[in-house]
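Q: what does this look like with copper (II) ion bound?
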Amino acid sequence: MATETAKKGFLHYLTTVDHKEIGKMYLISALIFFFIGGAMAWMIRLELFEPGQQLISPDVFNQMTAMHATFMIFFAIIPGLVGFGNYFVPIMVGSPDMAFPRLNNWSFWVMPFAGALMLGSLFVEGGSNAAGWTIYPPLTDKLYSPGVGVDMWILGVHLAGASSILGAINFIVTILNMRAPGMSLFKMPLFVWSWLVTAWLMLIATPVLAGAITMLLTDRNFGTSFFNMAGGGDPVLFQHIFWFYSHPAVYIMILPAFGMISEIIPTFSRKKLFGYSAMVYSMATIAALGLIVWAHHMYTVGMDLVAQTIFMSMTMLIAVPTGVKVFSWMATMWGGRLEFTVAMKYAIGFIALFTLGGLSGVMLAAVPVDYMVHDTYFVVAHIHYVFVAGSFMGLMAGLYYWFPKMSGRKLCEKLGNWHFWLTFVTLNLTFFPMHFLGLMGMPRRIADYNPIWTDMNQIATIGAIGFGLVQLLMVYNVIRASKKGAVAGDNPWEGDTLEWTISSPPTAHNFEKLPVVK
Amino acid sequence: MSHTQDHDFHVPKPSIWPPVSCLGAGLMAFAFVMMVATKSADMPWGALYAQITMVVGLLTLVLGAGKWWCMLIKESRERGYDKVPKVLDLANRYGMVFFIASEVMFFAAFFIAYFYASTFNIVWPPSNIEVLSIELPVINTLLLLSSGATISWAHHALIKGDRKTLVRYTLLTAVLGFIFLGLQMLEYSHAAFAFDSGIYGSAFYLLTGFHGFHVFVGSVMLLVLYKRLKKGDFSQKHHFYFEGAAWYWHFVDVVWIGLFLFVYAL
Ligand SMILES: [Cu+2]
């Protein structure tokens, strides 16, 4: 094909409807925003290296905590997972593209505008949102956040949310409608299942977030009183609606990683996945329960005791399907011929460390424990074990696993080994001490602290600087391998899902003839 | 393409219109920020620039989305309505249903806000609010309910091949929609409370306002449908666009019934 070799300009990528190109663009932009969010994390950690105020003002510090989370959630993790989903879901169901290729293009190209609003908000008068990524009113009311930074934040999330909702529709229709002959629902690879469930969560929860921030926007600019006590509104309402999205958002960020791990573990154990249908049902259960546990973020607002107990039990119940998954992965490895590639190491690292994040989640779900550690570094430790040890390591596992398919070349395993082990060590160095800080009572989102917390903070800062630097190895590995990595061949890992039956990288429209699944 | 296809799915050609509509949406977002930034400060020029940006953004969005829409219409015309592959027809249906589902969740946020406020405040509606009388909403309910009937009537006519009735009832549905909007404006004009007069006004105007906007979008869809019907588009068997517009119209209808029951009647 002549078009394959011709140089592709900006206009080509602007108008492309090829799910593989769009998927790659998602991945590259996620990587860029990962470093932007990472730079903010560095500023936070450097400021916290010692008690007292040294590097940045408390106001900038607050903006950094809010925007670090915002960039990582909406612009790094979710688009990163969407990138792999976009690239591999159509191939894995045996389809030439997503169901709505032009809509797919729209979903990607609205993101730069959302990102520009977010980045721009840091430079306007009064700075960006400084009230945490949860943008709770009254902190984000006009009175306490008078600048346009919060408005820009809201509109940025609106655009990113529209992208998510339309992307979710695209994923669901692709999976329900575009499967190759013979690919019944229960023959689909788990990664596809994970995206089906995730897209449902996005479809149901994201519009509710849009509603919440719309009301905040009108409260700020048109004098409405949804969250304003003086006018008969209630800030607690915002928390309810916000967490109705934002608890499921955690599953939006972890389920696709579950899916990737469920592909990688069987491939490198040379065994079939243990308990396929249990894995499917447990994901669906996690998602369904995930929609009705939001108030566990709000125990301390003065909720009814019965309500607290109900939300506590529901939340703890989620540990059951999650446990099913963890045990199924381990049972898959049990007695297998394990092959410790970098992808497999990341997958095993994911299981070990994500489980820690899950366990601290169960602790936080317990009302009495939450009363003690609410809004402390224990919460920060928990969520970073979910997002960094979970989503991030999942993404890395996916990268090392699928890079050969996407580029035709293998990443350097030796360099990848260094990347994995250094990531593993620095990750724990950064986030494990935060558990202790939280139990010692250190509140999150503070720029200055009691000197008794200095040691642990210094360990965390050293870890965070190391973690950031180590990621440069990954970038170097990717850049080098895409030019002169070893040629991978069609099926370097001997995987048995559909993406390994076609060439690396796949040609336009993936399949010469639609595959027939037996 | 050198390879032959053995499947019905047709991957569309690259198009500039989706990114153009992204640009429009982005410009509108920035224009909104400019408006907010220049509202309080004494910057008449800034406010003007903001308004210009908003208009340009809106036009870009309408251009992008409109051209995209036209492109789809042209493609389905060229293919012929009875030649639509099953996979594409199904995709469109699924897509529309899920889009409406996401809209339902969007309205759910505002309904929840309304219910929350009505239980949170001991006196509801708040004592300083003079609630609107029920006559206009009753008329509006009848209007929307009958518009639901007329669109179904049109659908039956389409299936039977009675184009004349079809065109007439489609137009009638759109007209009913616009009358509804007119009456809604009339109601707004003599309401004794405003968007910023406390939680009742906030919830009332946001709910009815967003609903009204959806009625407007639905009516525009129906007008486009009317134009297409006059051009002889669609076949008796395959008329996804008609069904999509009708589903959307029923959705708007159902939201109104919720509004009427909970905001006006109860
Ligand atoms: Cu939660």
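Chain A touches chain B through 73 residues (CB under 8 Å). Chain A has a mean pLDDT of 94.
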